[in-house]
Design goal:
six-stranded mixed β-sheet; 2 helices; mainly beta; globular; 10 strands; Immunoglobulin-like
Length: 168
C-alpha cells in the first residue's frame, strides 16, 4: 500500500470530522446493508491530483494567510472562550483560538440566530438559535482555518471572524 501525506490527512480529517458535524445518527433504526454494491469504488489509495493542497498543507482552503490582516485578539492557550452576541456585534472580534478550545457564544439580545457565512470545507456546522438573551451555545471547531460568522434577527445583522489554529 502506498501511504501518502494526503491519505494520512484524509484519515485524520475523517477522524475529527465528527467534532464539526456532530452526531445526527438515528440509533433507533437498525443498520442495514440492503443497497447493492457498486462495481466502481469511490475510494482508492492514490491521491486525487485534481484537489491541490493549500499553503498550510490541509486538503481544504483554510484562509489562515489572512490572519495577519485582521490582527485578532489572541486567545490561544485558553480552553474556553466566551463570545458575546450584542446588538452592536460579536465581542470580542476578531479572535484567534486553538483547535481544541471550546467556544461559548452568550446571547445578550433576544431572537438572534448564529450562522456560518464561510467555514473551512470539512466543517458542517450550521449554527445555533434563534436564542433569547442569557442563553449560550457551546461548540469546538477542530479544523484549522478562518471562520466567518453572522448573527441576526431578520432586521439587524452582525458579522464576526474566528481564526482556529493548531494548538502548540
Amino acid at each position: 500500500m502506498n501511504t501518502t501525506r494526503r491519505s494520512l490527512l484524509a484519515v485524520g480529517a475523517a477522524a475529527t470530522l465528527a467534532g464539526c458535524l456532530g452526531d445526527e445518527s438515528n440509533d433507533d433504526q437498525p443498520e442495514t446493508d440492503d443497497e447493492p454494491e457498486s462495481e466502481e469504488s469511490d475510494t482508492d489509495d492514490e491521491p486525487d491530483d485534481d484537489e491541490p493542497e493549500s499553503e498550510e498543507g490541509t486538503a481544504w482552503e483554510s484562509r489562515l494567510e489572512e490572519l495577519e490582516e485582521y490582527d485578532p485578539d489572541d486567545y490561544t492557550g485558553e480552553s474556553e472562550v466566551e463570545i458575546r452576541l450584542t446588538a452592536d456585534g460579536f465581542e470580542p472580534d476578531p479572535i484567534a483560538v486553538d483547535d481544541t478550545a471550546d467556544l461559548r457564544w452568550h446571547w445578550e439580545v433576544d431572537g438572534y440566530e448564529l450562522y456560518p457565512v464561510w467555514t473551512p470545507e470539512p466543517c458542517g456546522w450550521d449554527g445555533a438559535g434563534p436564542k433569547d438573551a442569557g442563553e449560550d451555545h457551546l461548540w469546538q471547531f477542530p479544523f484549522e482555518g478562518k471562520y466567518e460568522l453572522g448573527a441576526g434577527d431578520g432586521d439587524e445583522e452582525i458579522h464576526g471572524t474566528i481564526f482556529v489554529v493548531e494548538e502548540l
